C-alpha cells in the first residue's frame, strides 16, 4: 500500500510548509542563530547592497565635480567646499533611504534565550548586554551616517553616530569608529568644543585597533581645524597612507604641502607638491601644485621662479588660470618687499582673468589689502567692491572686508573729490600750451583704451564662434557613433570608473543632466558667454523686445500698438541725432570737454575750493574716527586749517584736531587748538560740549551712561511715571543729543506728550524720528502715527506698551495708496500650520526643537511634517507644516498639549496657534496676534472636528508601476512583522524617513530637516562590471576608499 501512496501530490504543500516555517523562524521577534543569519544575509545583499552602490556613485560624482580654491588652504574633505555639497545628493539620499529600510526590516533587539544553568563568562555578559543582535546591521548605520556626512547634513550625521555609539557601546571596534565619525561631524559643523569633548573621552580609554585608522584621520582633521599644523602633519601623513584613491591621495598631498608651507618648511612643502605631480592628478591640481612649488622656493630664487611662472602664463593650456599665475607672481614680489611689482602683477591677473570665481576674488582681496596699507583708498574700494561679490560670506576675513567696504563707501567720495580738484587746479595754474599737451595725452590714452577694448571684444567673439563650430562638429560625430555606443555593453555606462560627470562633462553616465550641479553651472556659463544674461521670456533671442514683440505684422496691430512703435522709433532717431550733434564740451575726445571742467575763472575756482575744503574736513574726520589712521587724518585737517582760514566749518576742524592730539598724548598741541576754538568760535556747539562739567565723564562712559538712562526711562514709561520720563528726556536733550538711543528718547517723549494732551509736541517728536532716524525700527511706528493724523484720524491719550509684541502690526499707513482692509479667512479645507510663538529667551529653543522632532517621529509613522523656525518682530515661531486642513492641525494641537515633555518647556508667554497658510501671511503685518486670537475664538474654535484619526492616514497613496527592478523592491520590502521596527528609546537619536534628528550626547541639538516625503522611485541602473563587482567581505567593503 505504501508504494502506491501519492507523495508527488503532497510535495508542493510540503515545500510551502517548510518555507513558511523557515520564514516564521526568521522573524525579528526571535533571536536565534538562524534568524540572525537570515536577517544579516538579507540586509547585506538586498537593501544595503543597493545603498552601497548609490553611495559610491554619489562619492564619484562629488569627487569629479568638486572644485577647490587652491589659492587658500583646501579642506580635508571635499564636503568642506560649500559649492560642492549638492553634488551627489540624490545618490546619498537613496543610500540613506536604503539604510533606513534595512534597519527598519532587519533590526533584532530581543535578547536571546539563555540557559540559566550555564555559567556566564565575560564574553557572554557582553553578548547579553547588547542592544542590537543583527551582526551586520552596524554597517547600515555607518553607511547612513557617512551618507549624511558627505551630503553636508552634519547635524543629522552627528545624531546618527551619537546614537550608534550608544547602540554599540559594548563593542569597542564599532564604538570607536562611531565616535571618530561623531567627532568629524562636530568639526565640520564648527562645533569645536563638542569635538574636543569626544576626543578627550576617547583618550581616557584605549582606541581599539579596528578604529585606529578612523581616529588618525579624525586627529588630522581636528588639528587642521584648530590651526595646530605641526601636530597635524604626522596624522595627515598616516591618512595619506590609508587613502586608496589616486585623485584623493594627490589632493591630500597638496594639503600637506600647504600645511608645511604655512609653517615655513619650504623643502618639505616642495616634496609634498612633487608627490602631487607624480600621482598624475587632473590638470588643474597639477597646475596649482607647480605654481605652489615655485612660491615655496622663491625666497632665494625669486627671479628664476618669476620667469618660470611667466612661461606658464604664456602657455595656451593655462589661459584659464592666468589670475592664479599672476597672483603667485604678485605674492613672490610682495614677499621680497617690492610692493609696486606686486601691485602690477595683481592688477594684470585681475585684468586677464577669464573666470569670475573665488580665485579672482582672493586676488582682488589681497590687492585691496595692499592698497589699503598704502592709503590708496580709492583703489582699495574698487578692489573690495569687486571681491565682495565673489567670496563666500563664511570666510573668516569676510566681516573685515565688509566693514572696510562700508567705511570706504563714506570716505572715497571725499578722497576722490580732493584728488580731482587738486588735478583740475593744477591744470588751471599751467600755461595754455602745457595744459593742452596734458589734455592731449589724456585723449590719446582714451582712444588707445577704446581701441584695445574693441580688439578684445572682437577676439572674444571670434573665439566664441570657433567654440560653437567645434561643438557642432563634436555633436555631429556623436550622432554618427550613437548606434555603435548602443551596441556596446550597457554595463560600461554605469561602471564606477567612468564617474558621474567625468571632468565636468557628460561622459558615459546614466545621470540626468539636471541632477548634476556642475553640469548645470557649466551650461549656464556657456549660455551667458554666447548670449549674455537673458530673461526667461518668449523670443528671448531678440535683443530688442519692444520693436518686435510677437509675430504680428504692423497692419495687424491696434492703433495704440502702432503709436507705441512710432514713439520708440522717434526716440531712437532723436538719440542718434544727439550722438551726432554732441557739442565739443560733451565729447571726451575733444579738448573743450576737459577745458570746461577746469576752474579758469574766479567763480569756478571758488567752487572748486569749497569742494576741496569739504572733502578735506570729512575725509579727516572719517580717517580719525572710523579707520584710526591718525597720520593721514592729521595731514588732511592740517592742510585745511593752513589753506583756508575763512572756511565756514573751521571750528569742526579745530575740534577734531584737539581730539586727535589728545589721542596721541600730545596735550600741548591739543590745548593750542582748544584755544583757537575758544578765541574764534565762542558760540560753537563744541565749546558747550567741552566746557560741560560732564565732558570727561561722558567721554569715558557716555555710551554706558546713556544706555542706563534709557533703561530707567523705559521702565518709568511702562510704570506710568511720566514726570520721570520728562525729566530723563531733558537730560538726553542736554547731554546726549547725538546718542545711540536718541530715537527712542524722542519716541517715548512724544508718547508722553500725547498722554499729557500736547498733541502738537507729540507730532513734532514723531517727525524728528522719521526724518533723522529713517532706518530705526521706531520710524515705522512714528510714520504710522503721522500718516494717520494726515488721513484725518484723531490722536487719543492713553498707555502704550512697546513690549506687547502680540498686539503689534507692521503695516505703515500710506497717503498715496489706500489698500483694502484685509481680514482673516474662515476657510478650513486648505493647508494649515501649527505654530508655537514665543519670545526667544523665554524657552530652551534647542530642547524644544528636539522634543518636537522626536514627538513627530515617534508618533506619526505614515506622515512627514516639516519643522521650521523663523523670526518676526522679536518673536521666534516654530512652525509644524504638512496639515491638509483645519481638522488635522487641530487634532495635532490637541495631541501635542497632552505631551508633558513639551508642555513643561513652554513658558507662560508662549502661544500655540493653529492657522491656515494664507492667514499666516497676515499675522504680525496687517493684523496682530491678538486680532487672530479674537478671530479664532469667534470663528474656528467652535467648529466640530472629525473624530477619525486623520494623522494616521498616509498623505498620498502612490501606485507603483511594475519596473525592471520590481523584483528587487519586493525583496527589499521583506516580511517583517508588526512591532519589529527597532524602536528608538527615549533620548536616542537617528535620522529616519521624516528627516528628524535629535540631540547628541553633549546636549547638542540637531535639527529637523525639511525634506519632502521619501517615495520609492525606480532605481537607477546600478549594474556594474564584473571586474568591479563589490565583495562585501573584503577590506574595501567598509568604503574607506570613498
From TrEMBL:
Membrane spanning residue stretches: none
Protein name: Tetratricopeptide repeat protein
Keyword Signal: yes
Basic and acidic residues bias (residue ranges): 454-467, 552-585
Higher taxonomy: Bacteria, Pseudomonadati, Bacteroidota, Bacteroidia, Bacteroidales
Signal peptide (from-to): 1-24
Keyword Coiled coil: yes
Region (Disordered): 454-497, 551-585, 959-1042
First and last residues of every TPR repeat: 250-283
InterPro entries documented for this protein: TPR-like_helical_dom_sf, TPR_rpt
Compositionally biased residues, Acidic residues: 959-974, 1025-1042
Species of origin: Segatella copri
Amino acid at each position: 500500500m505504501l508504494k502506491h501512496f501519492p507523495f508527488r501530490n503532497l510535495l508542493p504543500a510540503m515545500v510551502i510548509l517548510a518555507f513558511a516555517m523557515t520564514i516564521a523562524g526568521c522573524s525579528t521577534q526571535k533571536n536565534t542563530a538562524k534568524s540572525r543569519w537570515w536577517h544579516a544575509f538579507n540586509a547585506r545583499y538586498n537593501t544595503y547592497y543597493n545603498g552601497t552602490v548609490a553611495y559610491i556613485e554619489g562619492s564619484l560624482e562629488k569627487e569629479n565635480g568638486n572644485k577647490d580654491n587652491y589659492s587658500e588652504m583646501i579642506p580635508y574633505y571635499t564636503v568642506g567646499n560649500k559649492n560642492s555639497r549638492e553634488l551627489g545628493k540624490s545618490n546619498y539620499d537613496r543610500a540613506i533611504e536604503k539604510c533606513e529600510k534595512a534597519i527598519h526590516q532587519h533590526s533584532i533587539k530581543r535578547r536571546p534565550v539563555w540557559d540559566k544553568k550555564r555559567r556566564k563568562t565575560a564574553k557572554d555578559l557582553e553578548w547579553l548586554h547588547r542592544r542590537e543582535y543583527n551582526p551586520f546591521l552596524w554597517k547600515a548605520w555607518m553607511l547612513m551616517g557617512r551618507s549624511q556626512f558627505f551630503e553636508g547634513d552634519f547635524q543629522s550625521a552627528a545624531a546618527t553616530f551619537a546614537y550608534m555609539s550608544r547602540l554599540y557601546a559594548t563593542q569597542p571596534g564599532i564604538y570607536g569608529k562611531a565616535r571618530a565619525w561623531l567627532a568629524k561631524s562636530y568639526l565640520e559643523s564648527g562645533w569645536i568644543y563638542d569635538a574636543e569633548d569626544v576626543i578627550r573621552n576617547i583618550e581616557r580609554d584605549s582606541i581599539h585597533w579596528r578604529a585606529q585608522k578612523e581616529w588618525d584621520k579624525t586627529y588630522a582633521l581636528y588639528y587642521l581645524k584648530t590651526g595646530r599644523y605641526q601636530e597635524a602633519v604626522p596624522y595627515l601623513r598616516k591618512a595619506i597612507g590609508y587613502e586608496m584613491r589616486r585623485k584623493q591621495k594627490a589632493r591630500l598631498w597638496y594639503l600637506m604641502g600647504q600645511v608645511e608651507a604655512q609653517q615655513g618648511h619650504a623643502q618639505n612643502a616642495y616634496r609634498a607638491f612633487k608627490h602631487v605631480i607624480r600621482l598624475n592628478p587632473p590638470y588643474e591640481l597639477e597646475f596649482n601644485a607647480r605654481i605652489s612649488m615655485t612660491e615655496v622656493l622663491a625666497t632665494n630664487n625669486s627671479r628664476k621662479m618669476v620667469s618660470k611662472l611667466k612661461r606658464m602664463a604664456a602657455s595656451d593650456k593655462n589661459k584659464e588660470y592666468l589670475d592664479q599665475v599672476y597672483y603667485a607672481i604678485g605674492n613672490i614680489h610682495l614677499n621680497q618687499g617690492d610692493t609696486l611689482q606686486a601691485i602690477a602683477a595683481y592688477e594684470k591677473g585681475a585684468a586677464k582673468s577669464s573666470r569670475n570665481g573665488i580665485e579672482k576674488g582672493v586676488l582682488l582681496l589681497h590687492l585691496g589689502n595692499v592698497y589699503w596699507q598704502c592709503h590708496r583708498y580709492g583703489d582699495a574700494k574698487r578692489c573690495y567692491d569687486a571681491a565682495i561679490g565673489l567670496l563666500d560670506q563664511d570666510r573668516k576675513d569676510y566681516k573685515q572686508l565688509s566693514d572696510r567696504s562700508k567705511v570706504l563707501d563714506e570716505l572715497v567720495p571725499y578722497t576722490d573729490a580732493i584728488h580731482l580738484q587738486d588735478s583740475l587746479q593744477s591744470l588751471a595754474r599751467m600755461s595754455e600750451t602745457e595744459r593742452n599737451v596734458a589734455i592731449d595725452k589724456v585723449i590719446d590714452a582714451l582712444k588707445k583704451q577704446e581701441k584695445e577694448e574693441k580688439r578684445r571684444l572682437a577676439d572674444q567673439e571670434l573665439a566664441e564662434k570657433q567654440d560653437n563650430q567645434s561643438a557642432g562638429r563634436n555633436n555631429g560625430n556623436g550622432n554618427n557613433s550613437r548606434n555603435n555606443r548602443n551596441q556596446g555593453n550597457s554595463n560600461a555606462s554605469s561602471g564606477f570608473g567612468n564617474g558621474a560627470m567625468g571632468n565636468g562633462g557628460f561622459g558615459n553616465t546614466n545621470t540626468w543632466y539636471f541632477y548634476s550641479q556642475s553640469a548645470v553651472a557649466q551650461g549656464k556659463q556657456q549660455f551667458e558667454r554666447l548670449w549674455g544674461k537673458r530673461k526667461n521670456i518668449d523670443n528671448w533671442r531678440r535683443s530688442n523686445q519692444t520693436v518686435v514683440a510677437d509675430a504680428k505684422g504692423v497692419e495687424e496691430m491696434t492703433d495704440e500698438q502702432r503709436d507705441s512703435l512710432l514713439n520708440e522709433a522717434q526716440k531712437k532717431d532723436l538719440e542718434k541725432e544727439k550722438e551726432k550733434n554732441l557739442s565739443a564740451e560733451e565729447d571726451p575726445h575733444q579738448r573743450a570737454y576737459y577745458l570746461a571742467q577746469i576752474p579758469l575763472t574766479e567763480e569756478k575756482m571758488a567752487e572748486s575750493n569749497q569742494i576741496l575744503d569739504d572733502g578735506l574736513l570729512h575725509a579727516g574726520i572719517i580717517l580719525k574716527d572710523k579707520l584710526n589712521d591718525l597720520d593721514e587724518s592729521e595731514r588732511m585737517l592740517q592742510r585745511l586749517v593752513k589753506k583756508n582760514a575763512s572756511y565756514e566749518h573751521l571750528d569742526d576742524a579745530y575740534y577734531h584736531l584737539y581730539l586727535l592730539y589728545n589721542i596721541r598724548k600730545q596735550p600741548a598741541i591739543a590745548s593750542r587748538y582748544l584755544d583757537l576754538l575758544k578765541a574764534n568760535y565762542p558760540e560753537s556747539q563744541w565749546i558747550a560740549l567741552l566746557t560741560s562739567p560732564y565732558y570727561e565723564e561722558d567721554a569715558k562712559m557716555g555710551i554706558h551712561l546713556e544706555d542706563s538712562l534709557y533703561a530707567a526711562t523705559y521702565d518709568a514709561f511702562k510704570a506710568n511715571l511720566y514726570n520721570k520720563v520728562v525729566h530723563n528726556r531733558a537730560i538726553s536733550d542736554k547731554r546726549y543729543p547725538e546718542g545711540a538711543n536718541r530715537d527712542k528718547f524722542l519716541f517715548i517723549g512724544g508718547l508722553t506728550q500725547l498722554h499729557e494732551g500736547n498733541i502738537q509736541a507729540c507730532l513734532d517728536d514723531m517727525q524728528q524720528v522719521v526724518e533723522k532716524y529713517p532706518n530705526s525700527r521706531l520710524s515705522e511706528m512714528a510714520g504710522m502715527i503721522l500718516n494717520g493724523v494726515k488721513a484725518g484720524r484723531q490722536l487719543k491719550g492713553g498707555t502704550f506698551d512697546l513690549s506687547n509684541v502680540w498686539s503689534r502690526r507692521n503695516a505703515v499707513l500710506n497717503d498715496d495708496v489706500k489698500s483694502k482692509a484685509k481680514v482673516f479667512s474662515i476657510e478650513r479645507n486648505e493647508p494649515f500650520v501649527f505654530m508655537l510663538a514665543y519670545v526667544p529667551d523665554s524657552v530652551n529653543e534647542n530642547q524644544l526643537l528636539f522634543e518636537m522632532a522626536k514627538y513627530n517621529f515617534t508618533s506619526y509613522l505614515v506622515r512627514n511634517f516639516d519643522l521650521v523656525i523663523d523670526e518676526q518682530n522679536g518673536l521666534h515661531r516654530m512652525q509644524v507644516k504638512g496639515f491638509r486642513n483645519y481638522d488635522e492641525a487641530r487634532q495635532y494641537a490637541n495631541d501635542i498639549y497632552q505631551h508633558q515633555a513639551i508642555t513643561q518647556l513652554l513658558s507662560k508667554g508662549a502661544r500655540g496657534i493653529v492657522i491656515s497658510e494664507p492667514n499666516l501671511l497676515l499675522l504680525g503685518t496687517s493684523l496682530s496676534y491678538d486680532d487672530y486670537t479674537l478671530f479664532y475664538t469667534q470663528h474656528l474654535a467652535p467648529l466640530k472636528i472629525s473624530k477619525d484619526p486623520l494623522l494616521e492616514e498616509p498623505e498620498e497613496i502612490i501606485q507603483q508601476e511594475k519596473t525592471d527592478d520590481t523584483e528587487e523592491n519586493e525583496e527589499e520590502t521583506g516580511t517583517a512583522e508588526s512591532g519589529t521596527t527597532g524602536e528608538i528609546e527615549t533620548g536616542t537619536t537617528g535620522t529616519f524617513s521624516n528627516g528628524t534628528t535629535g540631540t547628541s550626547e553633549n546636549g547638542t541639538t540637531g535639527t529637523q530637516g525639511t525634506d519632502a516625503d521619501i517615495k520609492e522611485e525606480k532605481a537607477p541602473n546600478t549594474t556594474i562590471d564584473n571586474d568591479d563587482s563589490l565583495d562585501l567581505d573584503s577590506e574595501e567593503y567598509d568604503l574607506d576608499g570613498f
